[in-house]
Every structure is written in C-alpha cells, then in structure tokens.
Design a protein that fits this description.
Layout (H helix, E strand, L loop, with lengths): L4 E7 L2 E9 L7 E3 L2 E3 L1 H7 L10 H24 L8 E3 L2 E2 L2 H13 L7 H10 L9 E10 L5 H20 L4 H8 L10 E5 L6 H8 L11 E3 L2 E11 L6 H30 L3 E2 L2 E4 L1
Antiparallel strand pairs: 1-2, 2-12, 3-4, 3-11, 5-6, 7-8, 7-10, 9-10
Helix pairs in contact: 2-3, 4-8
C-alpha cells in the first residue's frame, strides 16, 4: 500500500476524524458514492493543509481526504432530509449552507453520554499537579527593533542584540542602565522593566523564552519576535500553585465533553467510510 499519510477533518475547531490514506497520483479527481470531486477542487483545498517542503503529495492527499469526508457528511445530511439553517458565526459572517448542514448532522448524530462529576474528579485525581494557576513573571528586556521580513535590517539588529547580550551577561548589575541607553522599547525609561506578565501577555517567542528561564537569568542569545530581537532578564517568578478540584471542575468537564463529542463524530465518519464507495483515494477508518 506504500507510505501511509494521515489526514484530519475538523468541524467547529473539533477533530472529528482521522484516517489514513495512500496517495494516488497528484491531480486526479476522486468520487464518493458516485459524486465527483474535481482535481481543481482538490488543488484549491491543498492551501489549507500543511506539508513538508518539496512533498506536494502530502498536501494533496490531506486535501482529497478532507473533501471526501465532507462529501460523505453532506450526503448523509441530505439523505436524512436535513435543510440548511446557517447561523451567525461572527459580525456580519454566517455559515455556508454546507457548513450548516454538517453542523446539524453532527448535532443530531453524535450520541454520547455526558461526563459526570465522578468522571471529572477521577481525571483530576490522577495527577492534581497538572491543574495549576498560571505563573507570573517579572521581566525586563532590551529591544533591538527590526522587521523580521527585512533581511538586511534583521541582520543589523541581530548583530547589535548579540553585542548587547554579551554586555548584559558580563555585567548583569548594569542591565537597567544598558536598557536605558540602548533599548528601542518605551520601557527604556524604566530601565527595560515590563512589569508582571502572565501567559498570553507577550508574543509567543518571548513567552517561550521565559518558560526556560530561572530567576535572575539573562537570555544567552537574542530572542526574535515580530518586534525584533530581545535581550531578556527574568527578575522574579511566581510559580503557579496547584488548584483544588472545585476551581478546575468546569474546565475538566468541558474537556471531557469535547473528547466524547469528538469520538462520537469520528465513529459516525468511520461508519460512513465503511459503507461508502470511494475511488481515487484509499481510505481506511481508524
């Protein structure tokens, strides 16, 4: 059967099916219960699927697989006589008829038992230390601003940030003075002090650097974000504390319900795949 490639179909941000497919030649159409999905449609869908560089077959297979599943769901919704009732999903934005039909089918066909209080408590009791309040960091930084898309500007900023990093590491006590002289951030007036930050308060690259630091650490290399290069000092950290069950009860119940819904939706898709006639892409339910 050759290399196995995994494709995923989602609805409303929830994974509803994972199945494996062997890639047919790129560019061919596929049929699902006699309904044609054109090569043009598959190629258009590939933009929504990641693939390793130089391996367009991976994106093509994911796209073909996703369109086959969508077609199966739409066929089942129409077989059941469902009518599209699009709902508003944002300011001035509504579901398409196809999205509405799939959502209606999944609501009607995903039968599962709601998680109980006992289920949630058992999940928490397996490892209470997993459920913690978010950490808080007190942080200072020196910013060497640049547009990361500008190669020349980025190289210049990196050279400057590398020099400043070494100066900061050589003389940690002078970090604030260095920030006042050199930083391109408005925090320079306060010696680079950003104050207290929690998860989500900074750009992802900045936060990722904080997660690997201890109190009084200075980053050994400049950290690149969309703002430029940062030299970061972690002034203090308050680790998150373990939370009691009552504090996390609702989030655990929500997570268990989402998992149960996803499994029920995957079971529906697998049943549809098992009874379908599909050509152009080989599919095997999980």
């Amino acid at each position: 059967m050759g290399d196995q490639l995994q494709a995923v179909f989602t609805s409303g941000g929830k994974t509803i099916a994972r199945a494996r497919a062997a890639p047919p030649p790129i560019g061919g159409p596929i049929t699902v219960n006699g309904e044609l999905i054109s090569a043009v449609a598959i190629r258009a869908e590939t933009q929504h699927h990641n693939a390793p560089k130089g391996k367009p077959a991976v994106a093509w297979t994911k796209a073909a697989r996703a369109l086959a599943i969508r077609t199966l769901l739409l066929q089942e919704a129409r077989r059941r006589g469902m009518d599209a009732e699009p709902v508003q999903v944002g300011p001035g934005r509504f579901e398409t008829d196809e999205q509405a039909l799939i959502a209606q089918l999944l609501d009607a066909a995903t039968d599962f038992a709601l998680p109980t209080e006992a289920d949630a408590r058992a999940q928490w009791a397996r490892d209470p230390s997993r459920f913690r309040s978010p950490p808080l960091w007190e942080v200072s930084h020196i910013l060497c601003a640049c547009d990361p898309r500008d190669n020349a500007g980025r190289a210049k900023a990196l050279a400057r940030a590398t020099t400043l990093t070494q100066l900061a590491l050589d003389s940690p006590r002078n970090f604030s003075d260095l920030a006042r002289r050199e930083s391109d951030c408005g925090s320079r007036a306060n010696g680079g002090v950003l104050g207290q930050l929690g998860p989500g308060d900074s750009v992802p690259e900045f936060e990722a650097a904080l997660l690997g630091m201890r109190e009084a650490d200075i980053t050994s290399e400049p950290v690149l974000s969309r703002h430029g290069y940062h030299v970061i000092r972690l002034d203090a950290v308050a680790e998150g504390r373990a939370l009691p069950f009552e504090a996390v009860r609702r989030s655990i119940l929500d997570a268990l319900e989402k998992k149960a819904w996803s499994q029920a939706a995957a079971d529906l898709v697998n049943r549809l795949i098992a009874s379908a006639e599909i050509s152009g892409v080989t599919m095997q339910p999980n």
